[in-house]
Amino acid sequence: MLRATLRHRRERRAAPSRGVRALRVGVLFLALMTISAPSYAFWTQAAVAAASGTGSGSTSTLSAPTAVNASVPNGGTSVSLTWSAPTTGVSPGGYRVIRTDTATSSAVAACGTSATSPVTTTSCVDGAVPDGTYRYTVVALRSGWTATSADSNSVTVLQIIATTTALTTSASPSLVGQPVTFTATVAAASGAPSGLVAFRSGGSAISCSGGSQTLSSGVATCVTTFGSTGTRSITAVYAGSAPFAASTSSALSQVVNQQTQTITFTSSAPTSETVGGPTYAVAASATSSLPVTFTSGTSAVCSVNGSTVTFVGSGTCTVLADQAGNAAYAPATQATQSFTVAKASQAITITSAAPTNATRGGTYTVAATATSGLAVTFSSATSSVCTVSGSTVTFVGAGTCTIQADQPGNGTYAAAAQKLQSFQVVKAAQSITITSTAPTSAAAGGAIYTVTASSTSGLPVSISSGTTSVCTVSGSTVTFVGGGTCVVLADQPGDAAYAPAAQKSQSFAVTVTPTTPTMLVVVPIPGGVTATWVPVAGLTYECQVTNGASPPGATSWTACSSGVTVTGTKNGTSTFYVRSVRGGVASTPASASFSGI
Questions:
Q1: Are residues 439 and 419 in contact, defined by beta-carbon separation less than 8 angstroms?
Q2: pLDDT for 385-408, tens place per residue?
Q3: What's the pLDDT tens digit per position in 39-84?
Q4: 520 vs 594: CA distance, rounded Å
Q5: Are residues 245 and 187 in the same domain?
Q6: Which of 425, 451, 466 is the last residue of a domain?
Q7: Which residues span the domain enclosing 476?
């Protein structure tokens, strides 16, 4: 900085003196303009009225920033910049940042700076930078003066980093069922790719039983086996992981060959088999570990179901063992096992369960088998209780039914011992259904009700009353004689073929309408009177006594029943009144006069 200070004198100077002063200032200005490095000058004057004076001046340099450094993360688009402020000279008022494309030498403002909008710190971030390689320079600014730094290091902005994937196999050709390891190596121009690799066979994902499909130092592996022969096209597909782009390996041809196999019987041939005797469990294994199937080479002597050998005739039994192979293994050569089966006895088993509720008129299908497989015939040993036709048993009477099962044998089997099956036959059960609907408004003395019922045996049902004070029954006619619940009973006693049926009942309510009591009889007694009448079930009664022939009082009624004795009557003529009551409704009273004694 140049400072010049003029001390002005109080007295005025002549015009020539002012010309000399102007000449001196001009010389100082020319001297400042000839300084080689960017400089900054500042001039002050204490007063402009003085005509003469003396002064002094100095200069200082605006230095450029140093150590400009640029960095960008892989795949990033924002470049971080730092630099060091000048350590000599005046301090910059700010900085302008310039980005230069190394390929085209095109330069643009960076970090949003300009000559009029500098940054005042020694770092900034240049955002949204397009792909390319760049250098940065930082320009120090102060009052129109500039000082430009040296270029920064080169930085490359690459949002997506290309990768390549290579694929190898541990064995080709391999055998069916043999573990094979595929190794995928993913490489990039810079950095180490991470993420997942998918292994595919002909475009379909391979199920890896081992290895790691996650990249580690750029390598992923897949251990798998193939269950069939053929040539497969294997690829490794890297899915990509920012900033690394996805890539797929070239197809690798994996050849898988078929294996051979042999069969070995692991069970020992029996030495004392007979027709119909215990079965033999044959066993064999193949070197492929695939299941072995068995058949009989002599079906007249033995049959095979799964691994069970059954002896059906005498002679030599030959068991055949085969393994048809699959995509991995060729068919095995057939293996055989032969042994002798001798003629044997046979036995009968009745396979149907004896009925536990056999009744006369019913049937039962009997079933039995012989170990020979020959047909079993049936007959009845108790024809008065049951008969047999083919395998159908018909129950014709009560008692013990005995069925005989026989098999006479043939050239291979001797006659079987007869088998018997016995069980009890009882009378048939029956049940009753009351088929008429109970009345809903039955009333004592009202309309009769005709009850109907049927039995499963078809035998007639008899009807009776279980509540004769409420209802009576004659044949199928129900008459209502009192109030309450009427219970109608239905019975069927059975016969020689059917057991008695369980009794059925039907219950319903019978109401009573209050009626004038009948057959009222009053008998005077000393100081009172005794009265009787015919009571009706379901009704209650109220009584009172009046003097002479006076009518009954509305509030003088007292509960009573037939045979009541009323005391405290007066000499002379009195009248006894009685009425029936139900549900708050009273009948017309009955009355009788008497003379007190």
A1: no
A2: 999 999 999 998 889 999 999 999
A3: 444 433 333 334 455 555 557 899 999 999 999 987 788 999 999 9
A4: 12
A5: yes
A6: 425
A7: 432-511
